[in-house]
Design brief:
Helix content: over 70%
Largest sheet: none
Number of helices: 12
Distance between the termini: 50 Å
Structural class: mainly alpha
Order of helices and strands: HHHHHHHHHHHH
């Protein structure tokens, strides 16, 4: 097996660790069975871990925001039925990413609301760690780390102002906000840097993932066999009724193609 950076490491490593614990699928001969054979279902059971992790995160987030057990139960059941359960039997990374997003929100909110400096620092470091795990699950989110850190800094600043830290002085709230953004960014950067360094040393490229985008775009372009008339028909067919009426009033709604 040749080293690659086609996929991000977190989903691969967690699945590999799970299979190693079960002592299955670790031999070269088992690889075809893991892809489409009898071991595939065994490998998919790791998705139950991400399923539970995501529901716990969304439940905690709802409880922190509402303080209501009834609303929290409704949120958990709704998110489970709408998103988590339909994806638990799929070997894709959307389940991992959703769970990690939930924990990012939980840790970030805890950092904003933390009363003591020690708790705030721990929550900020945990937020950065969760952001790093998300980036190592879907590399696109790596570029969102500075944006999230900036948004978190603003939230911490306004929370400190609401608490009237140091009275009308803005220095202390600003210091808290800058410290928050710095700790989150450093935590995320330190935890993603080993994989970046590995790819630079092994693959010759300083990136989290490389080599899959072109293949995916090519493969999905082959699935797209719609003609121009069919594209127009899809817009006509799936446009919501209310929007269809507005577009019709503006003269922008085309007549359905003849095959509809």
């Amino acid at each position: 097996l040749l080293p690659t950076s086609v996929r991000e490491p977190v989903p691969v490593l967690t699945t590999a660790a799970y299979l190693s614990l079960l002592d299955i699928g670790t031999g070269a001969r088992d690889f075809p069975r893991l892809r489409s054979g009898d071991l595939l279902q065994d490998g998919k059971r790791i998705q139950l871990f991400w399923h539970a992790l995501g529901l716990i995160a969304f439940g905690l987030l709802s409880l922190m925001l509402t303080g209501s057990l009834l609303l929290t139960t409704a949120v958990v059941l709704f998110s489970d039925a709408l998103f988590f359960t339909p994806r638990v039997d799929l070997h894709y990374t959307e389940l991992h990413a959703a769970a990690l997003m939930g924990w990012i929100a939980v840790f970030g909110l805890a950092a904003v609301r933390a009363g003591g400096k020690g708790r705030r620092v721990l929550a900020l470091l945990a937020t950065g760690a969760a952001l790093a795990a998300l980036s190592l699950t879907k590399s696109l989110y790596f570029y969102g780390i500075p944006v999230f850190a900036g948004g978190l800094a603003l939230a911490m600043y306004w929370q400190a102002r609401r608490e009237r830290i140091a009275g009308p002085d803005i220095v202390q709230p600003l210091r808290r906000a800058l410290l928050g953004a710095t700790l989150v960014t450093l935590s995320a950067g330190l935890l993603t840097s080993p994989w970046l360094l590995r790819n630079q040393l092994v693959m010759g490229t300083l990136s989290l993932s490389e080599g899959r985008s072109g293949w995916v775009m090519h493969k999905r372009s082959l699935l797209n066999t719609l003609s121009n008339e069919q594209r127009l028909g899809a817009f006509v067919l799936y446009t919501p009724d209310g929007l269809r009426e507005v577009l019709g009033a503006l003269g922008l709604q085309a007549d359905p193609p003849s095959y509809l």
